[in-house]
């Protein structure tokens, strides 16, 4: 229990949390072995799919290439209508094979205007465009 009385809950990969009869969250990554073995903490980001009725949204945290490779094992669960692009659209994220597995209609990228990292990467933006996302 946290100091403010809230309870810390550590979800497990593959677990589905029911928020209501129409809304659920499925935990897609990371698994504990991968999270503890990766040298890059970004690749230990929690990845989950929020589904409401028949609309799915994938949240990918700050995953980079290594994390994308790990996601391939969850391929049957990755199809979604909307993708929150990983790691602010950095060049190390959102590989083509993961984008094809998710096959979203829309993508959302969270970035600050004029950020020092110059996210999103023009390469990622081109990749999204080429795939019709």
**Strand and helix order:** EEHEEHEHEH
- Secondary structure tally, helices: 4
- The total of beta strands comes to 6
Note the quaternary state here.
Answer: single chain
What is the annotated CATH architecture?
Answer: 4-Layer Sandwich
Question: Which range does the strand content fall in?
Answer: 15-25%
First CA to last CA: what distance? Answer: 41 Å
Q: Please bin the fraction of helical residues.
A: 10-25%
Could you say which overall geometry the principal axes of the C-alpha atoms support? globular
Describe this structure in words.
The chain is an alpha/beta fold. The protein has one domain: Metallo-beta-lactamase, Chain A (4-Layer Sandwich), CATH 3.60.15.10. The chain has four helices and six strands; from the N terminus they run ββαββαβαβα. The chain has a six-stranded mixed β-sheet with strand order 1-2-3-4-5-6, with no helix packed on it. The chain is globular, with a radius of gyration of 15 Å. The termini are far apart.
Describe the secondary-structure layout.
Layout: E1 16-18, E2 23-29, H1 32-37, E3 47-52, E4 55-59, H2 65-71, E5 82-84, H3 96-102, E6 106-108, H4 122-130
Parallel strand pairs: 4-5, 5-6
Antiparallel strand pairs: 1-2, 2-3, 3-4
In short:
The protein contains 4 helices and 6 strands. By secondary structure, the chain is of the alpha/beta class. It has a single domain, classed as Metallo-beta-lactamase, Chain A, CATH 3.60.15.10.
